[in-house]
Amino acid sequence: xxxxxxxxxxxxxxxxxxxxxxxxxxxxxxxxxxxxxxxxxxxxxxxxxxxxxxxxxxxxxxxxxxxxxxxxxxxxxxxxxxxxxxxxxxxxxxxxxxxxxxxxxxxxxxxxxxxxxxxxxxxxxxxxxxxxxxxxxxxxxxxxxxxxxxxxxxxxxxxxxxxxxxxx
Length: 168
Fold this sequence. Notes:
By secondary structure, the chain is mostly helical. Helices cover 72% and strands 0% of the residues.
């Protein structure tokens, strides 16, 4: 009996630790992007990318909180942990895009990279948000490099875009 209780306590501590680490990742990504966004010394292009990250994280957080606070539906298991995982994958997606885009030497190659990432973003919605004007704000902006949908399942998008990159 005592061993069983120790195991339960250990598992609860591990779960708490894992949740705290995930939340720290979300906060770290958000804080870093927000700091960059608000740094007037930073290049405007870099600040626009940071703006996308801040807006994507804010959107994601709002949508997950709506799910958690909705008393008419059953709360999905680990909704907040999933949000934090999505934050990490969004960060990975943007960084992969920047790496591939900057690696492309010709404009037609840059256009292919942009098209692959844009299409992957819009074709992998997470919430199926009907407010298309809002979620496609960055997608439809010509003056920003990160032209992605805010309503993106970043885990699926990362998997899909990696597959597409092999074909380019």
